[in-house]
Amino acid sequence: MMQAYRNFFFHYFNLNQSTGRKDYWLATFVNIIVALIFYSVSSFLFYLLGMTDQVLVLNLIVAFAMIIWLILATAFILAILIPMVTISFRRYRDTGVSMWLFWIEPLLLLGLLGLLSEEFSDGYTNIWVVVVTGLFLVADILVKLLPSASQSDSE
């Protein structure tokens, strides 16, 4: 597993290499685990911040720890952004599907950003954004689950 994650970072801009299903999903799994750890600690720090309202010194310490933790989480997100796009591009190319389907990735990101936006705050538009984003997510996962077209997948 660690070899797949090491390859994920070492082949940062290498679009010529192939990526099998196993390497893609192991790197994605590690990224999800790390993101869940960041989320859990952030939630705990937010909880502590709410609990330490009465004591100013503890409130400042928790706020400082939260700022440092959020900076680390942001650095992690920025560090994996380009490798995730690269590994996704290689996975799409290796499946043999048309590269036009790779546009699912930015459309999925736009849909997720649309869910966070206040522009889609009315009920009906928000429902459609959720449905369309969900369909893009399912299509993205299905493409990445396809076996490699040109060679046997290393599993």
Describe the secondary structure blueprint for this structure.
Blueprint: H1 2-10, H2 21-51, H3 56-95, H4 104-116, H5 123-145
Describe the model.
- The mean pLDDT is 84.
- The longest helix has 40 residues, at 56-95.
- This protein is flat.
- With 155 residues, the chain is mainly alpha-helical.
- It has one domain.
- It has helices at 2-10, 21-51, 56-95, 104-116, 123-145.
Q: What's the total count of β strands?
A: 0
Order of helices and strands: HHHHH
Tally of individual helices = 5
Helix content: over 70%
Sheet with the most strands, sense and barrel status:
none
- What is the rounded Rg? 19 Å
Strand content: under 5%
Structural class based on helices, strands and sheet pairing: mainly alpha
